[in-house]
Structure formats: C-alpha cells, structure tokens
Give the backbone structure.
Amino acid sequence: MGQDRTPAGGLRVTTDRRPLREVLADPTTRLTATFLLIPRLEMVELLADAGFDAVLVDLEHGPISVDDLPGMVAAGHGAGAYVLARLGERTPATIGRVLDCGVDGVVLPHVESAADAHDAVDAARFPPDGSRSLNPYVRAAGYDGTESFLTTANAGVAVLVMVEGKDGLAALDDIAAVAGVDAVFVGPVDLSTSLGLPGQPEHPLVLEKVQDLMDRLARTGIGTGIYCPTPHAAARWQRAGARLAALSADIAMAGAGFRRTVEELHDLNTEGRSR
C-alpha cells in the first residue's frame, strides 16, 4: 500500500494521509520506508519524492538529535511521507519529547519482554491509556492543544517495538499480546549478532528465525516491520506480510549512487581512450 500523491511544486504530496496507527492495523498495508541518518530536511524531501512512503529518523545510530526532528517532520509531512523516529533509549522523558515534535510513530529498540513493551506503550499514550505527560504548546498539539488532542494522539501515533535478540524472540508471543503495540519491528542485524552471526542479516539461519517470527505474528494479527538491506530482501518480506519494510538507509543509497556515477564516468573515459 503506497500513498496516492499528486505533483506540487516539484514534490509529490499525499491526497489521503491516514493516521499511521490506523494504516498499520490494515493487513493489506505495504509501506516502504528507509532509515535517515543524514540530518537534512532536503534528504527527507528527496526520499519522499523518490517514492518512499515513510522515513525512519535514526536517533539511535545517526548524528541526529531531538532538536532536528521538527524540521524533518515538517518536510516529510509536506512531501506526503510518514515520519517515524527510532529512539536510542526507551525512557518516558525521551519518548515524550520525540512525540511532542509531531512524529507519526516511534520505533523502540531492544524490547525483550512484555514488561518492556508495556512500559513503552504507557510512555507513548496519554491517560487513560498511558501516562504520557501533556504540554499543549508543542508542535504535535499544534502549539495550542485542546482536549481532542489527547484522543487524536492516542488514536493516531503508532508504537513499534523492536525485537532484535534471543530474549525478544523467546518472549515474542507475550510482547505481541501487549495492548497498544501496533507493530513488532524486526532487527535482523542485531538478531544476527545475537545468533552468533554478526553482520549477516541474510544468513539462512537468520532468515529462518525471521520467517518463523513473522509467521507467529501473522497468527496474532499484529503488524510487522523489518529492516531490509536490499530491494530483494524488501520484496521478500513484503510478500511475506511485512506492513513496513525499511529498505536500506539514506547514506548507504547515496554512497552507492555516488560510486555508480564515478564508475560510469570512468567506463566512458576508458571507452573513449580505446577508440
């Protein structure tokens, strides 16, 4: 499921941007995203214009801070893309600050138990569904939040919990059963390390574990997200039912594009000299 976009000033904008939580609840959803490590709104706009449905701003590994988020969220929404933030920690204060910036969802790392998942949901939802602190003068509330903001935020903001280790796999059924978890996001890179195969997310054993995980989640009806290093991997997991495929990362794709351009120039010069 991609978004319906129309040209507008060189960028494509959505004509139907449903809340991400609602979108992820639909089993027919197939969103294509990528991780963002370059803290530039121009990169967000380029990715949206290229056709990515969502960007995952990486606050865990990228040189990005919460201060960078408002501009990126504005750029993404203006170009018709969803903007999520992958956090480096799951503290209530950090989750609340990120959500106050207006992101459509949070991706929370290293969830290894139902208790971890419950704490994450609690921090991301306003009462009575959780304990998120309210400030009506933040971007997410339109700088002048009313009571309706509490309801719309709870109904719209998605909570994705990352399962990326042996403990998380063992507790998967309990994690998926936690009310308010909208999707389980699989981290095959860290999972490969946990399985003694560091840096090998496409190893047959890792693929076997991921497929088993997705099969188990499918039986629960909960959404699945997953990091995919290549288009081939993304297509595989989308066919398997992943509702959010995070394909590669901005910096990886940019580097590959730069290398292809220089290699093409080198090849053309070589052909010219041989004539």
Q: What stands out?
A: The chain has one domain: 5-250. The chain has a mean pLDDT of 91. The domain at 5-250 is CATH 3.20.20.60 (TIM Barrel).
